[in-house]
Amino acid sequence: MRKIILLITCMFGISVFSQIKVLKNETLVEIGKDNSVGLYKKEEKFTINYQDLNTSNLNTFRSFSFLNVNKDVEGLYKLITDGFIDAPEGNISLELPNDIIELHFEKNYGQPTVQFIQYINKNRKYVGKSQFLNKKQIDMIFGKTNGKANLYNKASANRPANTNTAAENHINPAANSTPKSKK
User: Fold this and answer.
1) pTM of the entire structure?
2) Rounded to an integer, what distance in angstroms lies between the CA atom of residue 96 and that of residue 112?
3) pLDDT tens for each residue of 9-41
4) In this structure, which of 46, 78, 119, 125 has its CB flanked by the most CB atoms within 10 Å?
5) What string of DSSP letters covers 25-82?
């Protein structure tokens, strides 16, 4: 009798305190990736993941996300590639719904590069920095070399492509961004 009660108690305890819950698998599409920086799409939301070089722990990965309202993914790509051609004097600031992103252009070994600087939750105390990326790496991340750039404007199965849920979710160059230099 004791064994039966003990068995029932154990079975009841396991079922009551179960912490694992099966979630619906949502599709995450990789647009492009190079080293520790990647661009991903989930429905209409785009996310850039990067390894944070600003922390002592090299296993820290950060990300920032935005919706593709008004073709913002293509606009970000063009902003970066234009910066390779004519480097701005200072950082270009972009305001996202949750973060502020700065594009920092610098020449490394004579080659133009860009670095993402993220002010997490729009707080200047918490800063994440990506590695420096050249034009070839940016092309890979934005899917220009693997043909996945055509996924930018493809509608998800749940929503038509031209439905904008919130206009404030797109990338806005901040008013304090520095104009391009005339060299």
Assistant:
1) 0.70
2) 25
3) 656 555 555 566 666 666 788 999 998 999 999
4) 46
5) ----EEEEEETTEEEEEETTEEEEEEE-TTSS-TT-EEEEEEE-TTSHHHHHHHHHHH
